[in-house]
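Write out this protein's structure.
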Amino acid sequence: MRKERMSCCWGNLPEELVAEILLKLPVKSLLRFKCVCKSWYALIKGANFVNQHLCYANTSSSGSLIFMLYDAASRKYGISLVSDETLKSVPSAQLKLPPSCEKLANWGDLFTFLGPVNGIYCIYDEYSDVVLWNPSTKEFRHLPPTDQPNIPRGELSAGVNTGFGFDPKTNDYKVIRIMTYCYEKYIDGPRFHRAELYTLSTDAWSELDPLLPCQITGLDIHNGYLSGAYHWLAYDNTRKKDLVLSFDMADEVFGTFLRPAAFEEDSFAEELLVIKGSLTLISYDHKEIGTCFVIWVMKEYAVEESWTKLASIGPFSECLIPVGCGKKHEVFLRTAISNEVCLIRYDAKSRELAKFQLGKVTGGSVICFHAVIYMESLVSIK
């Protein structure tokens, strides 16, 4: 019976062949095709089709990036979908941030963009506004306020760290926020933490054990989700060791593993990214001769001995910072020369460099620039 209903929509083609053809189509087309007939609607809405389409999109050789640019002079964001090969806009593709992100946009340098996790992105500011967004379907969800209390008098917040990921055991999406406090009179003294976890299926926050095994040192600039866990750069004050802190989305527990011993030698700053399914560390320093970068990759997840120095690049005459990575092995570095925004793409596999000029901006003051992998997805967050 199911095959008969399917054939009425597309001649006498068997259901399996119709499904195989539809799997290769973009989400924009599939959303329209749900209206063709009831059998297509049921097929495209089905969990099995959604997962197969996601798998196909994730393994496709072609890729796109979401570019986000903030012009401090005009106080406006620009967001567009570009090819990861040419860095030119994808024809007929327009992205628009959710309306609820307009408030976040006013903060400019505090606006952060995590993802993708199965095509879903997490957009948030340093305080309490968090939005989940699927740009393919244009669905978004504004998360409820957390139960974070007002900072007691005599204390101040030392920062907020956020992570976003997928729980493979329950097929659920989760957001973790870690608030760090310290006494106002003792900035360099002990830190106190409060951790909360949002679960999509319940649309609610719950409090976690605030006892962290180390102190988070990195910013939430890049996506740190891999293998069911989210990751941050951290430091163990007791052991005097540089670590990676992980949070397991399924078991809801923290863990740690060591960074390579030589990672921070002669480095000014460090970043943690996920490139081609591997945790990747980038250290860089703005020296007199220019900006130099060192890239480390963890070839076997959570195995400390598998850290491998992948490449040393530079020096570059410009002052560069990492802004994201591509679907393959690319690392993107940003520089602003006068009022022109330039991007350097480094392919960690072929060791090739390419420089692109992305255009001019008003006043030449650009902040909060991100290059994020774009992933097609039918996953619903409603």
